[in-house]
Amino acid sequence: NNCIAIAIDGPAGAGKSTVAKLVAENLSFLYIDTGAMYRAITYAAIKEDVPLENGQKLRDLLDSISIKLISEEKGTKVLINGEDVTTDIRTNEVNQNVSLVSSHELIRIEMVERQRVLAESGQVVLDGRDIGTHVLPKAEVKVFLTASVEERAKRRYEEQLKKGIETDFEQLKQDIARRDELDSTRAIAPLKKAVDAIELDTTTLTIEQVVAKIIELVKERV
Ligand code: C5P
């Protein structure tokens, strides 16, 4: 069976996108960063002054723009109406508002639909919050990636430092914990481990070790 979908879910900063991208590269699968899609609509809404608590207005905006994800060596390049917003969707402002925007049913219905279309080829790795539970409930391999809040904040902190941005560690920790709380308690498709997902606590694992484990899981299923 060469039609395999890999679902990688977990809380913020667990390393999902890094790991998902490497797994996809290794297997020559398509990598789909679903968080980038929610980030893109959040960024567009802030820019266009669309009220973030209004699901219908957000949906109208989503229907009126084009969001493109392009998988690249460095990560996912994101275009809105052809404009490169790759770095704009990773700001604190977007981090702090993306959970609210992605809690709206009208937004989720459309995003999930797009994600399923993108996943149709079958040779895919998707990372997000609801891939194993909702987007692709029949995914052949489901992984739930976790790590302690402390460790996840540390990784983000170091990531920022590398970009030359000095951030407040405690603030970072609080932001991550708050986003997890919002994502896990929302009414529609909350962040949750699928019953048939394999949980990988990455607190003490390297990226290479996590990638190797997932590839092992995939090989077991082929
Ligand atoms: O993965 P990333 O941190 O980029 O996701 C940003 C936000 O997008 C999450 O905190 C969550 O609110 C939302 N999201 C979601 N469902 C997904 C992926 C992301 O609700 N499948």
UniProtKB/TrEMBL annotation:
Keywords: ATP-binding, Cytoplasm, Kinase, Nucleotide-binding, Transferase. ATP binds at residues 10-18. CDD domains: CMPK (cd02020). It is an enzyme of class 2 (transferase). Residues 6-219 form the Cytidylate kinase domain. GO terms for cellular component: cytosol. Its main location: cytoplasm. The keyword Transport does not apply. One of its GO terms (biological process) is pyrimidine nucleotide metabolic process. The keyword Flavoprotein does not apply. It is found in: Cytoplasm. Its EC number is 2.7.4.25. It catalyses: dCMP + ATP = dCDP + ADP; CMP + ATP = CDP + ADP. GO terms for molecular function: ATP binding; CMP kinase activity; dCMP kinase activity. Belongs to the cytidylate kinase family. Type 1 subfamily. This is Cytidylate kinase. It comes from Alkalihalobacillus trypoxylicola. The lineage of its organism: Bacteria, Bacillati, Bacillota, Bacilli, Bacillales. The gene is cmk.
